[in-house]
């Protein structure tokens, strides 16, 4: 019987080879060859095949979501949890949660994963940066999330916060790299201005950055002197010229409203309709592909846009009724964007053309909010759109600055070819960092600076203080040992040299000003926001029935000065009745949260130029 099976198998193989070689079946052979030649190996597969020594014997924390899968759609969580040589101890989830079931912007709680029994810590909600307690049982953090290539997609900033926490608490970071669905060639839009920051923190990128998450992490580690012990499990087979469908990898929706790789590609451009009275198609089966407004004539709009000869796309008139979100239940006229050639599409110009053409149909009904500044990253754009300036005139605003960023920053940290002209592959270098990352003080305030770094082999630098050379630029303060003391208001730079390493940290010296107090009552918690002129240190203490916030070296600014009662009443919260505030001891701002209970659980997530306190419902 065994001989028969062996002989039958041999005959079957011979017949299969003959069949595949016949003229009518040549497409089968070619298709198979193409599948093999274009198959990209994601970072998780490369890690387990070639770099298992990076994590062997270490406690592993994994930052992931449903996009963290191998080429056979097996979850990275399962691959690591079931591997005999991997000790997976904690899971961390970004916006939408580790299972991807939470809507955009939703407050995500931490919990225990039913499948593995591991703790799952949310990095979108009460905190964006892993805390010390979250990392107590972790030696190395792995990041495995599919990005979409836009500077307003939050996953990459979760990576940034993970890197900051890793440096602060002496943990390693390994990025399991994945493709950029918009490709790695084109870079478009303004480089974000620091005045338009919200979730993005210190990481300022153009709208379309054309980098993988591994390249972003590498760039940030050096450009922002983070001092992180960073490794990247690079993909095998990925080229900058590829779009997602070229990789041979399965596409997993990156968030609830990015269902296909075409959506992931278009998002970077069509998201630029957000923060206006236009619909991005949320609530339909084609979000970010079908776009419009109730007052738009689809046929006229399609004719106008097709007449503009926008490269790589064709527009079809369409009408749709969103099932949720903006214009829910209303008939919306607009267009569907059909992709002809991804390589020739300028996504930022596409988004601006859509806004311009839709606005022109009915300027009276077209509106933009001030949040559009944060969306596109340049405060000059919004007034120019309202003034009906041309798309070409708008994009010329940032042409020189973008080119400088591309050549002098981005192109120094690319891990994959083909490389742009005059660019070379990144060579692993050591890194030196300065903590804290936010050096913003009031006159008279002091801060001890901590140095940390690693050589190109990942070995921690044994820093000898006597070999440090400090320099303060800007006449804003002085350094004694490793302690910086702010003296005069202004902006400046602290620079330190150690052997062949150098690190810099920008400094802002200014009086802390509390400009406003805002609040909202949400399901599960009440949020109180203090708007400041800059980032600052603060303390939170507790007494029975009270939560007390103190900000040193502070004063009350406008419009908060107009609140003569120095009281903010909170309605409809089961835990908080009001917030009272004043200046005590001549220079300290104090806010007292009057609770309806003796004690409350609270969180203080990081926001630039704000203090945010979330009080949970008991």
From TrEMBL:
Gene3D superfamilies: 2.60.40.1080, 3.90.1150.140, Uncharacterised protein PF07075, DUF1343. InterPro entries: NamZ, NamZ_C, NamZ_N. Residues 265-416 form the Peptidoglycan beta-N-acetylmuramidase NamZ C-terminal domain. Residues 60-261 form the Peptidoglycan beta-N-acetylmuramidase NamZ N-terminal domain. GO terms for molecular function: peptidoglycan beta-N-acetylmuramidase activity. It holds the Pfam family NamZ_N. This is DUF1343 domain-containing protein.
């Amino acid at each position: 019987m065994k001989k028969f099976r062996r002989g039958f198998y041999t005959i079957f193989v011979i017949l299969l080879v003959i069949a595949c070689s016949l003229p009518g079946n040549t497409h089968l052979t070619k298709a198979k060859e193409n599948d093999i030649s274009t198959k990209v190996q994601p970072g998780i597969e490369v890690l387990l095949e070639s770099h298992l020594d990076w994590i062997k014997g270490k406690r592993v924390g994994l930052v992931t979501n449903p996009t963290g899968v191998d080429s056979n759609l097996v979850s990275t969580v399962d691959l690591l949890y079931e591997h005999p040589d991997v000790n997976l101890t904690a899971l961390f989830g970004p916006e939408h949660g580790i299972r991807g079931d939470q809507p955009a912007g939703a407050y995500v709680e931490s919990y225990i994963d039913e499948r593995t029994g591991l703790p799952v810590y949310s990095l979108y909600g009460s905190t964006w940066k892993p805390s010390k307690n979250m990392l107590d049982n972790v030696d190395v953090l792995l990041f495995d999330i599919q990005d979409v290539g836009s500077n307003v997609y939050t996953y990459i900033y979760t990576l940034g916060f993970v890197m900051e926490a890793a440096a602060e608490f002496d943990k390693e970071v390994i990025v399991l790299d994945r493709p950029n669905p918009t490709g790695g060639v084109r870079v478009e839009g303004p480089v974000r201005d620091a005045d338009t920051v919200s979730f993005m923190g210190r990481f300022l990128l153009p709208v379309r950055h054309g980098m993988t998450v591994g390249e972003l992490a590498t760039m940030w580690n050096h450009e922002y002197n983070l001092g992180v012990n960073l490794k990247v499990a690079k993909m095998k087979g990925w080229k900058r010229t590829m779009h997602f469908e070229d990789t041979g990898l399965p596409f997993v929706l990156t968030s609830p409203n990015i269902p296909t790789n075409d959506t992931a590609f278009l998002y970077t451009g069509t998201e630029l309709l957000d923060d206006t009275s236009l619909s991005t198609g949320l609530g339909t089966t084609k979000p970010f592909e079908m776009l419009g407004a109730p007052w738009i004539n689809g046929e006229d709009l399609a004719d106008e846009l097709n007449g503009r000869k926008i490269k790589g796309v064709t527009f079809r008139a369409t009408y749709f009724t969103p099932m949720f979100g903006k214009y829910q239940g209303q008939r919306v006229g607009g267009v569907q964007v059909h992709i002809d050639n991804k390589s020739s599409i300028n996504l930022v110009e596409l988004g601006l053309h859509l806004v311009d053409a839709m606005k022109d149909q009915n300027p009276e009904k077209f509106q933009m909010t001030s949040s559009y500044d944060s969306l596109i990253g340049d405060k000059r754009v919004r007034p120019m759109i309202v003034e009906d300036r041309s798309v070409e005139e708008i994009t010329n605003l940032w042409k020189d600055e973008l080119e400088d960023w591309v050549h002098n920053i981005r192109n120094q940290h690319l891990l994959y070819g083909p490389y742009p002209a005059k660019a070379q592959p990144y060579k692993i270098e050591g890194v030196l960092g300065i903590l804290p990352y936010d050096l913003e003080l009031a006159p008279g305030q002091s801060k001890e600076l901590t140095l940390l770094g690693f050589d190109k082999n990942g070995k921690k630098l044994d820093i000898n203080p006597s070999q440090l050379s400090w320099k303060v630029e800007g006449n804003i303060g002085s350094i004694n040992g490793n302690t910086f003391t702010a003296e005069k208001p202004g902006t400046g730079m602290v620079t330190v040299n150690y052997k062949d390493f150098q690190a810099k940290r920008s400094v802002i010296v200014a009086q802390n000003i509390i400009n406003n107090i805002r609040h909202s009552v949400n399901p599960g918690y009440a949020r109180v926001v203090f708007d400041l002129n800059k980032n600052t240190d603060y303390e939170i203490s507790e007494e029975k029935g009270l939560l007390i916030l103190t900000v040193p070296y502070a004063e009350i600014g406008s419009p908060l000065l107009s609140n003569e009662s120095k009281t903010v009443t909170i309605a409809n919260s089961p835990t908080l009745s009001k917030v009272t505030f004043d200046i005590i001891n001549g220079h300290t701002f104090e806010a007292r949260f009057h609770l309806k209970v003796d004690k409350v659980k609270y969180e203080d997530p990081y926001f630039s130029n704000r203090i945010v306190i979330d009080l949970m419902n008991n």
